């Protein structure tokens, strides 16, 4: 199974239009507020710190470059080639490598695993953006990349985030400038029930090793000057023998 052409084209259109400046995309918050927080939760559960780290859905690579400062080999992957173009331009030193990947495509994830071996996987806010029919295949792809020794760290918007986003989109002033392109390109966040994520992981053969709640920081601000944060859940998952 692979993603629909509509979904792929929506992301290509979004990233072709996105400015190159850091922080110009709604979720492109500073790593110290995002991946930096996540690594502190993730690292204690790693079996092998030297395994490749795959940033799945890396976008313009802001978090990928942060991870590349802390892990020996980092691969940024994304469905959108336009997103990867942004990532490569922002990484002239080549701290990480970048490649296209449809993680819901079994052949593609198995090919990557054959190339790099078991890997640790970092994924932030991708599952809720996927079409419902692709979500189990996406988690199956993560399980293939993790293999026997890897660990996966997933951060997803909680159910409560949907009402906040719809409220922002429906405000009298219209959606905030950085949120508007998300809706305009037809990639508005979908709804993933909080209790569905453990089921996807279990079906894929992965066990939850740790979990919790935390705010997902964005780059956008409310009219009163406060930064928009969205409720999210996180899990560390892997195979337990």
Tell me the structural class: alpha/beta
Main sheet summary:
7 strands, mixed
| Overall form | globular
Question: Compute the gyration radius: what is it?
Answer: 17 Å
Q: Enumerate the strands of the largest sheet in spatial order, edge to edge or round the barrel.
A: 3-2-1-4-5-7-6
Sequence of secondary-structure elements: HHEHEHEHEHEHHHEE
Q: Tell me roughly what share of residues is in helical segments.
A: 25-40%
- Which consecutive residue ranges, at least 5 long each, have pLDDT under 50? none
Secondary structure tally, helices: 9
The proportion of strand residues reads 15-25%
Average pLDDT, to the nearest integer?
Answer: 92
Distance between the termini: 28 Å
Instruction: Count every beta strand, where a strand is a DSSP E run of 2 or more residues.
Output: 7
């Amino acid at each position: 199974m692979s993603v629909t052409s509509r979904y792929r084209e929506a992301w290509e259109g979004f990233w072709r239009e996105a400015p190159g400046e850091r922080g110009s995309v709604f979720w492109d918050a500073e790593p110290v507020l995002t991946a930096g927080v996540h690594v502190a939760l993730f690292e204690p559960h790693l079996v092998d710190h030297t395994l490749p780290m795959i940033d799945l859905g890396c976008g313009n690579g802001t978090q990928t470059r942060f991870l590349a400062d802390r892990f020996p080999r980092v691969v940024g992957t994304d469905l959108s080639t336009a997103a990867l173009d942004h990532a490569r331009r922002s990484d002239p030193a080549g701290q990480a490598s970048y490649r296209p990947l449809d993680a819901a495509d079994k052949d593609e994830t198995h090919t990557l695993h054959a190339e790099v071996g078991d890997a640790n996987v970092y994924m932030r806010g991708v599952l809720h953006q996927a079409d419902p029919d692709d979500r189990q295949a996406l988690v199956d792809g993560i399980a293939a990349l993790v293999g026997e020794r890897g660990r996966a760290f997933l951060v997803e918007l909680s159910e409560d985030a949907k009402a906040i986003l719809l409220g922002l989109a429906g405000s009298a002033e219209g959606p905030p400038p950085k949120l508007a392109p998300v809706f305009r390109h037809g990639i508005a966040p979908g709804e993933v029930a909080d209790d569905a994520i453990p089921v996807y992981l279990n079906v894929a053969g992965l066990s939850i090793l740790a979990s919790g709640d935390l705010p997902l920081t964005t780059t956008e601000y409310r009219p009163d000057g406060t930064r928009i944060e969205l409720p999210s859940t996180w899990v560390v998952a892997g195979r337990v023998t």
